[in-house]
């Protein structure tokens, strides 16, 4: 039988090809004159963007679908997130499923400093980082 593009299988074990994007927001504090002891906060939430079927295949029960519970398998979503907070764990799962990193991007901005009511000598920075993984 013919398969639709969203159902197409590659030759390596019958796995779907596609992309999954992992994103997270972070923050850190750098003291006066960019001291070497910057304080990083843990990752609060790892977001997942991609086709529902691929995300479920890779992350299984660790995928939190509560923000988009009835999404069809062939549709894309950017509303999922992971139930764990360790990027390395997400990367390991993607690698084990045959994905490779294709691109990454990060932005950062100063959110609070003394002039905005922040700590006297510190500046609090926020960042957003995305990693794009693909499987051919």
Distance between the termini: 22 Å
Overall form: elongated
**Beta-strand percentage?**
35-45%
| Helix coverage percent | 10-25%
Helix and strand element order:
EEEHEEHEE
- How many β-strand stretches? 7
Q: Compute the number of helices.
A: 2
Domain KCTD8/12/16 H1: 18-135
Pfam families: H1_KCTD8_12_16
Subcellular location: Cell membrane; Cell projection, Neuron projection
Keywords: Cell membrane, Cell projection, Membrane, Phosphoprotein
Question: Could you outline the blueprint of secondary structure elements for this entry?
Answer:
Blueprint: E1 18-30, E2 39-40, E3 46-51, H1 52-59, E4 63-64, E5 76-82, H2 87-96, E6 100-112, E7 123-135
Antiparallel strand pairs: 1-2, 1-3, 1-7, 3-5, 4-5, 6-7
GO cellular component, one term: neuron projection
Main location: membrane
Organism: Struthidea cinerea
Protein model, in words:
Pfam families: H1_KCTD8_12_16 (PF23110). It is found in: Cell membrane; Cell projection, Neuron projection. With 136 residues, this protein is mainly beta. It has one domain (19-135). The protein contains two helices and seven strands; from the N terminus they run βββαββαββ. The protein has helices spanning 52-59, 87-96; strands at 18-30, 39-40, 46-51, 63-64, 76-82, 100-112, 123-135. Strands 1, 2, 3, 4, 5, 6 and 7 form a seven-stranded antiparallel beta sheet that branches. The longest helix has 10 residues, at 87-96. Residues 1-11 have low confidence and may be disordered.
What's a quick, concise take on this entry?
The chain is mainly β and 136 residues long. It is built from two helices and seven strands. This is KCD12 protein.
């Amino acid at each position: 039988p013919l398969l639709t593009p969203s159902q197409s299988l590659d030759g390596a074990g019958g796995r779907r090809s596609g992309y999954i994007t992992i994103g997270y927001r972070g923050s850190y504090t750098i003291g006066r004159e960019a001291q070497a002891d910057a304080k990083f906060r843990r990752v609060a939430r790892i977001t997942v963007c991609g086709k529902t079927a691929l995300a479920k295949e890779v992350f299984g029960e660790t995928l939190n679908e509560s923000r988009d519970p009835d999404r069809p398998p062939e549709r894309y979503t950017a509303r999922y997130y992971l139930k764990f907070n360790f990027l390395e764990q997400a990367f390991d799962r993607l690698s084990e499923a045959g994905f490779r990193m294709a691109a990454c991007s990060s932005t950062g901005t100063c959110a609070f400093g003394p002039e905005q009511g922040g700590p006297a000598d510190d500046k609090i920075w926020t960042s957003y980082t995305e990693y794009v993984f693909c499987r051919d």
